[in-house]
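Aim 2, interim progress. The first record below pairs a target sequence with its structure tokens.
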Amino acid sequence: MSSSTNTKNISSKPIKINKWDTNALKNALNDACKKYFKETLNYTEDYSVMDRRLYISLISCLFSLYALIYDWFNPFPKSRSVLIACVASYFIIAGILTFYMRFIENGRFFTGKLIDKTGIDPGQKCKIISKLKKYDDIYNLTLEYYDGTNTSTSSVAVLKKSVGNYFDENGVLCYDKYINDLKKIYDQARSNARKVK
């Protein structure tokens, strides 16, 4: 019982970060957004985008492991061509991973599904992308909302505000302000998607 009480106390503590650290600002806002979608709106997170990144990384590590084992059993002069091939493969796959993260993932930190518990309506899907440039205070959050199984009934809502609106002077996240803006763009995206139907 004490461990569950401890967990609730930790999650209900206000988030405090270094307000001059851009990555910390973005990560705190992203985490608060995930928390809102998972706990309040009951979305289930879809990890397929992150899983693909892990699979690509696993393949590059397997090339490294193969080179290590081959070199162990066949010392250097014999293993030269295998080592060259594995090192080249590792860097090619690292390039593929960079391409994937830059152009396919592209700042997406949450993909979630909301399944109707009654089974009458088709599920809803949200993709959330955030961007915050290094020396900029404008936080860009793009919410792509898909209503049902038809991808043509999609809607996009954008939140562009200064991070100063969501953090106080001490670097504590003003969760309620941020959630109010999230709720507005979520409702806007949902109503636009229903108009398309």
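The second target in this work package is listed in the same format:
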Amino acid sequence: MAQRYDRAVTIYSPDGHLLQVEYAQEAVRRGSTVMGLRTNNAIVLGVEKRSVGDLQEERMVRKICMLDDHVVMTFSGLTADARILVSRAQMEAQSHRLNFEKPTTVEYITRYIAQLKQNYTQSNGRRPFGLSCLVGGFDESCWSGIFYEWRANTTGRSSQPVRDYMEKHADEILTIADEAAAVKHIVRTLVSVSSLNHTQMEVAELKYRQPLRMIDHQVLADLERTVRREIEAEAEASRRPRAP
């Protein structure tokens, strides 16, 4: 029955679903886990890194992209779709600079991406973009993280357990004041929930009016060891019998 309603993105099923949009959402659920935190001074993004072949150029596999000097984006889903979306967003950001002689705001470029993705759900001969994006950055007038002003958010394959973990530790997240603590929290979340090691993750940091900085793999390795020791210590403490 579903095959009758999924041949075009503009056709609703009898229960009110756009099946091709739901197929695109499934591509996101199967994509890499990504997450982001906003501190007082920086945007920190962490992504699950897929394994790279021995002969493959590692610099070609990036899921953290600059849209402008002050806006960064990461994504979960189809990388080929992301290349198109990133390219269009970068061109829009440069066009905004040319036309208005000032950088785009984070909200403007996020609305542009959302509008572009929505347009692909209303025209025949197209299919929806199979990715979900996290956009962060800084404005001249006010600081803005992700479009809905999240202090932390996630998307991708393990987004639900990651979100549950972050909500469980919401008190810690809301008090994060510096990027070092945010980087450690991202590493701890990815290790605890997704069982990743430092070779399977990438973490980046964007500060106001500073270039994007990728966190060194040795730093991630040290943080991973620290986090695993802390987790083991907490598990050991929970197994000890409580004194009456």
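The chain has a mean pLDDT of 86. This observation will shape the mutagenesis plan for the next reporting period.
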